[in-house]
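Attaching the record inline, Q. Sequence:
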Amino acid sequence: MEKWFNVGKIVNTHGIRGEVRVISKTDFPEERYKVGNTLYLFMPGSNKPIQLKVKTHRTHKNFNLLTFEGYENINEVEKFRDGILKVPESQLGNLEEDEYYYHEIIGCLVATTRGEEIGKVTEILSPGANDVWVIKSASGKEILIPYIEDVVKKVDVKEKVILIEPMEGLLS
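Structure, as predicted:
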């Protein structure tokens, strides 16, 4: 059975020429939304994806704006709202050393280099220069960990374990 990975969510239309606003969930928007690429749209309540070929891609404010081949106006794409854009596992490329896909990090157990268990990664935020990993502790508290060399010391995606050296005040 094919595994699917989220690359974005269509949150609205943009203009009248069939453009949609996408909140990106990928580290590689330029690659994923490249003209000619195939994306698969999963609508809420449906398991059958709609195959879409990217016709145009541009960014506007915090959104990626896409059009798809064969969908020329707002009336044809309004129904795509709230749909999730995905790619199959076969479209995932190889990463450089110390680069990871979100699905490899989410769910990992985070502990300090001294063996103190912090919690599990539940989400990844991409606010700017570096990603921020959201860790949910056993008590339910959310802790934000910047993905930088000074903090993240070891990532083992096979064992689903991440070791960190917390900066002063990071865990308080």
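The longest strand covers residues 4-14. The chain has a mean pLDDT of 88.

More tomorrow.
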